[in-house]
Amino acid sequence: MVHMKIRDTRGEKIFYAVNYFLLVLLSFICVYPMYYVLIGSLSEPVRMLSHRGMLILPLGLSVDSFSKVFQYPMIPIGYRNTLFYVIAGTVFNLFLTILGAYGLSRKKLMFRNAIMFMIVFTMFFQGGLIPTYLWMKQMSLLNTFWAMLLPRAISAWNLIIMRTSFAAIPDSLLESAKIDGAGDVMILSRIIIPLSTAVIAVMVLYYGVSNWNRWFDALIYLRDRKLYPLQLVLREILIANDTSQMTTSAVSASDKEPLGVTIKYATIIIATLPILTVYPFIQKYFIKGVMIGAIKG
Questions:
Q1: Burial class (CB in 10 A: 0-12, 13-18, 19+), 153
Q2: What is the model's pLDDT at position 21?
Q3: HSE-up of 209 (CA within 13 Å, CB side)?
Q4: What is the pTM (predicted TM-score) of this model?
Q5: d(CA 82, CA 77)
Q6: Closest CA to 210 of 149, 268, 165, 270
């Protein structure tokens, strides 16, 4: 059987060319800022301070900024705290979301629709910052690591996605397990979770990135610098312009300003590199998991 290749029309060629151009332009807009920061962090401070315009190659080559950043005591503390908040927070988030999604996916659950309505309601109407702060204060959670875990223990959107995914699993499969004597715990651990690895991977991605980037809760609820996450340390360096503790007295006054600029770039790279490294390993589950969660309402 001979297959004839149909040539693209002139209009289709123009359409493809415009699409490719827009995609390349969009990719450049997304990637170049991070590339600029990386190249800037590796450039010589004095030359970087006086540079204007686009940056393609490093202006000289210097790693002084990275050495200064790692010598700053708050960076290791921030890394340690952030890793704890990400790991413990994601496990806590995932545990509660799985339990909630499993219960809400069971059709025989009493007041199921009313509970779902209250959960969806919280996506549009919330108590606000001041009532939340007063509640946290009354519960003695201020300035504790629980302040970073409890207020955002479950995302309503993630709960809905996982509940929809669980509900798409055939009831006949679960009924067969019940006939064999399996309880809810065994059904959840032996059937539901193994069949939902894709959507669980998406939840790990969502919660992990959210916990890694979380800084506002720390700004509001934490006062002890030993509990600061890396993002709050990064905020101090970038917004408060606090690089004085990195540019020590051994650095001349004329070099402190240019070194401070490259230190900011180096801090951004150090703060974002881990999540950029982990993301490609989970990204393959992203589309598949979202599609699974969208099969059934």
A1: middle
A2: 94
A3: 12
A4: 0.77
A5: 9
A6: 149
Q: How far is CA 197 from the centre of its chain?
A: 19
d(C-alpha 266, C-alpha 260), whole Å: 10
CATH of the domain at 264: 1.10.3720.10
Q: Is 34 helix (H, G, I), strand (E, B) or coil?
A: helix
- What are the tokens at 220? 């509001």
Tokens of 286: 């992203």
Residue 248 token pair: 């020590």
Containing 199, the helix (H) or strand (E) segment is helix 197-213
- Residues 148-165: tens digit of each pLDDT: 988 888 988 889 988 988
The total number of structural domains that make up the chain:
1
Rounded to whole angstroms, what are the CA distances from 74 to 16, 81, 92, 227, 250? Answer: 50, 10, 26, 10, 19
Asked if residue 184 is part of any domain, the answer here is yes
- Whole domain around residue 274: which residue ranges? 64-297
Q: Is residue 168 within a helix (H) or strand (E), and if so which, with residue range?
A: none
Tell me, what amino acid is at 279?
Y
Amino acid at 280: P
pLDDT of residue 296: 47
The 10 Å Cβ neighbour count of residue 168 is 17
In a domain, 31, yes or no: no
Domain assignment of residue 25, yes or no: no
Q: Which pair of structure tokens corresponds to residue 10?
A: 């002139």
Q: What is the mean pLDDT of residues 6-35?
A: 87
Residue 201 placed within a domain: yes
Record the tokens describing residue 195, joined without a space.
Answer: 């069949």
